[in-house]
Amino acid sequence: MIPVRPGPDQYLCQGGILIQLEELLQKQGWKRALLIHGDSSWRAARPYLPIRALERCDLLPSIDLCTDREVKRLSNFVDPATQDVIIGVGGGRVMDLAKAVANRRGLPILLIPTLPSTCAACTPLSVFYDDKGAFIRYDIHPQGQRLVLVEPDILLHAPVTSLRAGIGDTLAKWYEAKALSATLVEQPVSIRMGLQAASICRNILLTDGEGALSAIKTNTITPSFLRVIDCILMLGGTVGGFAERYGRVAAAHSVHNALTHVSAAKGWLHGDKVAYGILIQLALTDNWEEIDLLIPYYKALGLPASLSELGVDPGNKELLRLLARTALQKNESIHNMEQDFTEEDLLNALQRVEYHTTFQKEELPL
């Protein structure tokens, strides 16, 4: 059985949408909110939020990644006697924290994303890290979001690196969902819908990705920018919403998770490392034609296509073996794929992608 959870009850992306925040709270019957936010995200969103709506909110800054300790700390500030909704304002980290706190305390969720870097605003899950920033797990919550409000102008003023990372993370939807669904003899309708959403994501990103990045650089909201942010925030979330475990994560995310244990790569965002993971996943399945299609696109957007670009020494065999071993840990998503991979398979893929991205026009080593 595939439990279908397409996304939030309402997704509203419109210039000036936050002016309606008080009205939207009233329509839901919510009297008071606990508003969780980050520092930079609050500076970005605060000018767009009307004072009358903020008068109905108790503000609570988050101070850490989405860790068990931070979720517990934030949950202790929830007062069910006076607060009847959790609002999250921020990037993926704050989105995941707000979802975890709301589900822990049994309150509805309203999210206001300030970065176009992940689909966290529209997925019913939280990614958890340890205190050092290394990935440990993701939790799928029983309750999804009631409302997601997107002000395009906030995202237009986000760092261009956040949009680039969002493109990388969302591009993986197609490659991972395709690999996961390949394990099925017959694909139910819901999985076909998830795959169709993933295919649309890929097509939009390959067509409009460069234009969307240019929109941020020129400070201009364009049709390509709006298509890409809807693709990242909303459509990307529906892939796993319809296809569930066949539309979530595979080898590309396992490579990302392994890279979170490497200090040299910490300057890159989640989606950047996932984008690199796509190339490793494709190498594992010998799809060099697709790798050749993606490398020029990566270069145009500034996405990393090699360990060298990530700041990781490709000549450090011990480090490469650590990456391969970590990506293959027992609970990693790479094991959801049809094939079984070994540490040697991962090492070979890492080395061949490094060679290929450096000497793309030369014959690949056997």
From TrEMBL:
InterPro entries: ADH_Fe/GldA, Glycerol_DH. GO terms for molecular function: metal ion binding; oxidoreductase activity, acting on CH-OH group of donors. It comes from the Bacteria. Residues 8-133 form the Alcohol dehydrogenase iron-type/glycerol dehydrogenase GldA domain. Glycerol binds at D169, H253, H270. Keywords: Metal-binding, NAD, Oxidoreductase, Zinc. This is Iron-containing alcohol dehydrogenase family protein. The lineage of its organism: Bacteria, Bacillati, Bacillota, Bacilli, Bacillales.
